[in-house]
């Protein structure tokens, strides 16, 4: 039995090969594997590149792979027939199973099959998982419709606060660090009744991708004594806690697996989110996500009918970490 697990993301795609000893023996990486935006052909090319690299490291032939499990936000967008056809053209006749990235995130943190995931990265989503399947999702609606508490959401509020401060409408210590991130000098010389720095802020923000505002999110955590940034962090935490509350069910007692760059990188946000959950009467054991690729591998093993207990989970975790750390893989 040779399994291939794929964690297909909007920025990068990674693949792992799991052998019949239930150990990861090879990993590979490529670019964007989400078909939304770039289309399924471009996404598949990156997925195949990651799979080929992993197979090369594992020294296995693609024709010998028995099952492929693809986890990704765009997984449901892929037509299974399309995937089977493209894989067959590459020499793979393996069974293909599509999974959600939030289920993979959950499975990266625990061998349990039911509980919750909360991701706060560029976007933000909460999900209830039952038997390794996403059964209810809250938010994750993208930068225009939702993602409350995400890196974009926080960064946008930082930008708005800085613009207001430059116009003299409020006071915050975020001005200089935010402008520094955007490559703008603090020029308060008035031009057409407004500081030059504010004109430049408008130009930079509107010239770039909206999601680029996520780069400003760390600025909100620099000064705990700043009332404006503290308000942004608290509102973000309340929004993330509300998303978990929206998917919470009394018959699913956890754990809650948390991940994403903002949640993992900003302990202050994590503490505030858990405090908000406690205030809502929701107490869950919390686990930090390890790696989505590990979760995809767990799902791949479960697809074969094998029970992933603590021992199997630890074997997958340790061997995946070992492979990801290989200098040749550069992951």
Structure description:
The chain is of the alpha/beta class and 331 residues long. It has two domains: 3-109 and 290-324, Nucleotidyltransferase, domain 5 (2-Layer Sandwich); 112-289, 2-Layer Sandwich (Nucleotidyltransferase, domain 5). 43% of the residues lie in helices and 18% in strands. A five-stranded mixed β-sheet has the order 3-2-1-4-5, sandwiched between helices. Strands 8-7-6-11-12 form a five-stranded mixed β-sheet, sandwiched between helices. A hairpin with a 2-residue loop joins strand 9 (190-191) and strand 10. Helix 5 (151-166) runs antiparallel to helix 7, helix 5 (151-166) runs antiparallel to helix 8 and helix 8 packs across helix 10 (267-279). The two termini are 25 Å apart. The mean pLDDT is 91.
Summarize the model shown.
With 331 residues, the chain is α/β, with parallel strands linked by helices. It has twelve helices and twelve strands. Strands 3-2-1-4-5 form a five-stranded mixed beta sheet, sandwiched between helices. Strands 8-7-6-11-12 form a five-stranded mixed beta sheet, sandwiched between helices. Strands 9-10 form a two-stranded antiparallel ribbon.
């Amino acid at each position: 039995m040779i399994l291939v697990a794929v964690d297909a993301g909007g920025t990068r795609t990674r693949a792992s090969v799991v052998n019949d000893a239930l150990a990861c023996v090879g990993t590979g990486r490529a670019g964007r594997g989400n078909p939304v935006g770039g289309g399924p052909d471009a996404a598949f090319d990156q997925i195949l590149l990651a799979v080929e690299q992993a197979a090369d490291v594992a020294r296995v032939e693609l024709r010998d792979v028995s099952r492929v499990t693809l986890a990704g936000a765009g997984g449901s967008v892929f037509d299974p027939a399309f995937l089977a056809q493209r894989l067959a053209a590459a020499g793979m006749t393996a069974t293909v199973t599509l999974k959600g990235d939030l289920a993979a995130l959950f499975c990266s943190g625990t061998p349990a099959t039911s509980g919750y995931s909360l991701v706060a990265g560029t976007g933000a989503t909460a999900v209830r998982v039952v038997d390794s399947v996403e059964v209810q999702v809250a938010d994750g609606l993208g930068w225009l419709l939702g993602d409350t508490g995400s890196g974009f959401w926080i960064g946008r509020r930082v930008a708005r606060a800085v613009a207001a401060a430059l116009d003299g409408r409020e006071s915050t210590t975020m001005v200089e660090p935010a402008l520094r991130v955007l490559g703008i000098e603090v020029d308060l010389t008035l031009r057409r009744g407004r500081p030059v720095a504010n004109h430049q802020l408008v130009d930079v923000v509107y010239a770039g991708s909206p999601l680029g505002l996520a780069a400003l999110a760390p600025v909100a955590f620099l000064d705990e004594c700043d009332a404006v940034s503290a308000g942004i962090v608290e509102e973000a935490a309340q929004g993330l806690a509300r998303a978990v509350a929206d998917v919470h069910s009394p018959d699913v007692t956890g754990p809650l697996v948390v991940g994403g760059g903002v949640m993992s990188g900003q302990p202050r946000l994590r503490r505030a989110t858990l405090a908000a959950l406690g205030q809502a009467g929701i107490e869950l054991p919390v686990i930090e996500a390890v790696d989505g690729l590990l979760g995809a591998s767990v799902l791949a093993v479960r697809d074969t009918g094998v029970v992933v207990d603590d021992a199997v989970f630890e074997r997958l975790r340790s061997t995946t970490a070992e492979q990801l750390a290989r200098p040749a893989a550069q992951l």
